[in-house]
Write a structure and sequence with these properties.
alpha/beta; 2 domains; binds flavin-adenine dinucleotide; 30% helix; elongated
C-alpha cells in the first residue's frame, strides 16, 4: 500500500482555479480513500492563497503552495523544477495532472526528470486490490482498445486525465486542511523559455465543454450546408454545436466543435447524436453524458449501444420536423408572454 499520499496538480489561470482542478480532486479523493492515505494538491501561481483554501474545501487534505509573482504564467521549466523538488522532499506515491496544454507539458517534463513513467490521457484510474498499484486506463492503438497500464517499479506513479472525464468534487466549506507554503531559491525560477502573451481560442456562444445540451452532427448529414440543421436545432434548444471528426475533417464544422478522442470531452445532461456512427474514438468524448439520444438510419450503428433513446430513422425526416415543432413552441411561448 502507498502511504506517501496521492497528489493532484491544480491549475489556475490568472489567479482563478480552473474547473479541472476540482475534477482532479474528485479522482484523487477516490484513489486516496481506496488507499487509505492522504490527498494533497500542488498549486503554483501568484497571489493564490485563497485558491489554496478553495482546494481544501473541494477535498484536499494538504496544499503545497508556491506563491510568487514570477509564477503568474505557466512556464514548464520553473514549474517542472519545483514539482521535482517537492516530489523529492515528500515522495508521493501517485501524481495526477490534467491532460490540458499545461498538464501535458509539465507532467512529461517532471516524469522524465524523476525517471519514472507517465500514462497520458487516461479515461479511468483505479487501484489494484492486491498490490495497491495505480491502474491507468486509456485508449490505445488508435482508440481501438482500452489498455490498462501499471508502474510497478518506479515512483511516483504519474498519469494525466482528460478534463471533463469526471465531475468536479463538491464544495464543503467545513473541511479543514493544511496549507504548506514552499519557497525555492532563485535558481529554480530561471528559464530558457519566455512568456510572450496569451491568445484565447475562438469560442462558440455556448462553450461546448460547459454546455448542458450538445447537438452533434456526423457524416450522415451528407453535405456541408446540412450542418445548418445542427446549428438551428442547437440554437432552438440553447445548446452547443458538436461534430464528429469526419465532419471536422471535411471542413463542415470547425475543430472547436469536435467531440472525441482527438477533440473535446463533454458531459452534458443531453447529447443528441445525429448521423454519427458511434466509433470508439467518438464515444471516448461523450459517453459520460447523462442522457444520449441518437438518430441513425442504420439499426446496427454502434451509437445505439450507448444511447438512452435510439431513433432508427432518416435524419432528414426527423430533424426538419423537430425544428418545426420547436419553432412552433417558441412562437406559442412568445405569444403567451405578449398577451400577459
Ligand atoms: C487516432 C484517432 C482519433 C480519432 N478521434 C476522433 C474524435 O475525436 N472524434 C470523432 O468523432 N472521431 C474520431 N476519430 C474517427 C472515428 O474513428 C470515426 O471515423 C468518426 O467518428 C466517424 O464519424 P461519423 O460517425 O460522423 O461518420 P461515419 O462513421 O461515416 O458515420 C455516419 C453515420 O451516419 C449514418 N447515416 C447516414 N445517412 C444517414 C441519414 N440520412 N440519417 C441518419 N443517419 C444516417 C450512417 O448509418 C453512419 O452510422 C478518430 C480516429 C482515430 C484513428
Amino acid at each position: 500500500m502507498e502511504d506517501n499520499g496521492v497528489w493532484i496538480i491544480a491549475e489556475q489561470n490568472r489567479g482563478d482555479l480552473l474547473r479541472v482542478s476540482f475534477e482532479l480532486l474528485n479522482r484523487g479523493r477516490y484513489l486516496a480513500d481506496r488507499l487509505n492515505t492522504s490527498l494533497s494538491a500542488v498549486l503554483f501561481g501568484s497571489n493564490i492563497e485563497e485558491e489554496a483554501q478553495e482546494l481544501i474545501c473541494h477535498g484536499a487534505d494538504r496544499v503545497f503552495l508556491v506563491d510568487d509573482p514570477r509564477l503568474e504564467y505557466f512556464l514548464a521549466e520553473p514549474y517542472g523544477k519545483m514539482l521535482c523538488a517537492l516530489v523529492k522532499k515528500y515522495q508521493p506515491g501517485i501524481i495526477i495532472g490534467a491532460a490540458t496544454c499545461n498538464g501535458r507539458t509539465l507532467m512529461p517534463y517532471a516524469a522524465h526528470k524523476l525517471k519514472t513513467g507517465l500514462t497520458a490521457d487516461c479515461t479511468m484510474l483505479e487501484v489494484d486490490e492486491q498490490t495497491g498499484e495505480l491502474l491507468q486506463t486509456r485508449p490505445a492503438i488508435g482508440g481501438n482498445i482500452m489498455a490498462t497500464i501499471k508502474t510497478p517499479v518506479a515512483r511516483p506513479q504519474m498519469a494525466t486525465v482528460r478534463p471533463r472525464s469526471m465531475r468536479p468534487a463538491p464544495r464543503d466549506t467545513s473541511r479543514r486542511g493544511e496549507i504548506k507554503k514552499e519557497h525555492f531559491d532563485d535558481r529554480l525560477y530561471s528559464s530558457s523559455i519566455k512568456y510572450i502573451g496569451f491568445i484565447e481560442e475562438s469560442k462558440q456562444d455556448i462553450p461546448l465543454q460547459d454546455a448542458d445540451i450538445v447537438v452533434a452532427g456526423g457524416k450522415g448529414l451528407r453535405r456541408a450546408e446540412n450542418f445548418k440543421l445542427v446549428q438551428e436545432l442547437a440554437r432552438l434548444l440553447g445548446a452547443a454545436e458538436g461534430a464528429s471528426r469526419s465532419v471536422v475533417d471535411l471542413g463542415w464544422a470547425p475543430y472547436a466543435c469536435q467531440v472525441g478522442l482527438s477533440g473535446k470531452t463533454v458531459t452534458p445532461n443531453l447529447y443528441l447524436a445525429l448521423g454519427i456512427s458511434g466509433a470508439v474514438q467518438h464515444l471516448a468524448g461523450m459517453q459520460t453524458a447523462e442522457n444520449i439520444i441518437a438518430v441513425n438510419n442504420d439499426p446496427e450503428a454502434q451509437i445505439f449501444k450507448v444511447a438512452d433513446l435510439g431513433i432508427v430513422a432518416d435524419l432528414f425526416d426527423v430533424l426538419p420536423r423537430l425544428i418545426e415543432k420547436l419553432r412552433e413552441r417558441k412562437s406559442r411561448e412568445r405569444g403567451k408572454t405578449d398577451n400577459e
